[in-house]
Design goal:
This protein is α/β, with parallel strands linked by helices. About 30% of the residues lie in helices and about 35% in strands. It is built from four helices and seven strands, in the order ααββαββββαβ. A hairpin with a 2-residue loop joins β5 and β6. It is globular, with a radius of gyration of 15 Å. The two termini are about 25 Å apart. The model has no long low-confidence stretch (mean pLDDT about 95).
């Protein structure tokens, strides 16, 4: 029987999808569960969190104080970094609660490094960087249009 490797393209895209779906459900524990025990995240505002427990605690605080917008994303690249790591690069946008349109001022470039932990793909590092494109409004408009197509498709993550 031929078994798919733990860090296959499909497995890493599924890991990223689970991460964003957990955010969209406001599920702090589910979000943190996608990380390696010692995984780290760098948020849109530059905040840094290390370890599943710190990630879950901070997201629980955020989700208990307000309802954040939901994510959609388009995977732009998957690259093997060696025998045990894969880099996923994506663009992401957010749709406000009860909305249907991307909020351009929070578009982001996201990077995720996946590793294998106990036979399962886990996030070693996740970073979300504002996609501001200072002085190049046409790039911001193109990205917003690209992400709106993902929203309109009904997908959370488009990997094609």
């Amino acid at each position: 029987m031929n078994q798919e490797p733990v860090l296959s393209r499909a497995a890493v895209v599924a890991l990223y999808t689970r991460l964003l779906e957990a955010w969209n459900r406001r599920d702090a524990s589910g979000f943190a569960a996608q990380f390696a025990d010692d995984g780290s995240t760098v948020g849109f505002d530059g905040s840094q969190l290390d370890g599943r427990s710190a990630i879950a605690t901070e997201l629980d605080r955020i989700f208990n104080h307000h309802t954040p917008a939901t994510y959609v994303a388009r995977v732009r690249e998957l690259r093997t970094l060696g025998s045990g790591a894969v880099l996923l690069r994506a663009v992401a946008g957010m749709v406000p609660p009860n909305g249907s349109a991307i909020k351009p001022d929070v578009n982001a470039i996201q990077s995720l490094v996946a590793t294998a932990e106990d036979g399962a793909p886990r996030i070693a590092l996740f970073q979300s960087t504002p996609a501001q494109f200072h002085g190049r409004p046409q790039l911001a408009e193109q990205l917003t249009a690209e992400l709106q197509r993902v929203v309109d498709s009904g997908q959370v993550v488009h990997a094609g």
